[in-house]
Amino acid sequence: MSDRATESAATKGGDISTMGEAMFKSLRAEIDATMQRDPAARSRLEVVLCYPGFQAIMLYRLSSACWRRKWYLLGRWISAIGRILTGIEIHPGATIGKRFFIDHGMGVVIGETAEIGDDVTLYQGVTLGGTSPSVDSDSQRNVKRHPTLADNVIVGSGAQILGPFTVGRCARIGANAVVTKEVPEGATIVGIPGRAIQTSRTPQSETAPFVAYGTPTGNIPDPIARALDGLLDEVQSLRARVNELESRGKEDSDGNGLPAEGDEREAAETKQSSQ
């Protein structure tokens, strides 16, 4: 074997070794992310064998690699196998960052043009979907139709995030929320349609406490209750103003020698009794 062939073989062997090492580190990072966010996970082997979220992510990585090489049918086939095995549907065209965690997982749907940053957490029943009409599909291909989740986003169970907009870094989407517009960094969104109940100009750091299901507990401000309280305060203020005006009008009537409302009623009753 010539020196050039030997050098080429050594280079290929080194590349394969480097790729294998990178894949092992990525795999371990995914497993560790699961164990950090789920106290029920007791070992790495348990995560590999028993966690459908982890299995779905691994199958997505494989299908996505096929998709990037334009092996579209193979990528979709692997994705379909993953959906059958795990109940989680991730389109191979989606872009997903590092340490992605899907807890429980059943019913999760991630669309083709969805983009997900690092350290993102989704719970069961989440949809990252599009709002494009189901007509004229040709004009919608290769067009951004699904949401983008920035780093450290948490999406609670049953939440629907629909449309081509961005959910800012460290945002929290509460369980069963329906979000159809931009979410600022550090915000907490709940309800249908989604409303911000907490906002933060300075997004939470990676060391901030983990918020399970994206839904804070404790004394949560309710935007609807807050609006109703404001309306009640306004009604009380208007009622006090009306009472004040009525009292002032009665005083003016008495001062001008005009009979008051009570006097008019008494005079009418006296007239009727005399007849």
- From the 3D coordinates, which CATH architecture of one domain would you assign? 3 Solenoid
Rg over CA atoms: 32 Å
Q: Which structural class best describes the helix and strand composition?
A: alpha/beta
How widely separated are the two ends? 137 Å
CATH superfamily of one domain: Hexapeptide repeat proteins
What's the short version?
With 275 residues, this protein is an alpha/beta fold. Helix content is 44%, strand content 13%.
Properties at a glance:
275 residues, alpha/beta, UDP N-Acetylglucosamine Acyltransferase, domain 1, six-stranded mixed sheet, 6 helices, 13% strand
Q: Please, could you describe this protein's structure?
A:
With 275 residues, the protein is an alpha/beta fold. It is 44% helix and 13% strand. Among the domains are: 94-221, UDP N-Acetylglucosamine Acyltransferase, domain 1 (3 Solenoid), CATH 2.160.10.10; 226-274. The protein has helices at residues 3-37, 44-50, 52-68, 72-86, 223-255, 261-274, and strands at 89-90, 95-96, 101-103, 109-110, 115-116, 121-123, 127-129, 148-149, 154-155, 160-162, 166-167, 172-173, 178-179, 188-190, 195-198. It is elongated, with a radius of gyration of 32 Å. The protein starts with a helix and ends with a helix.
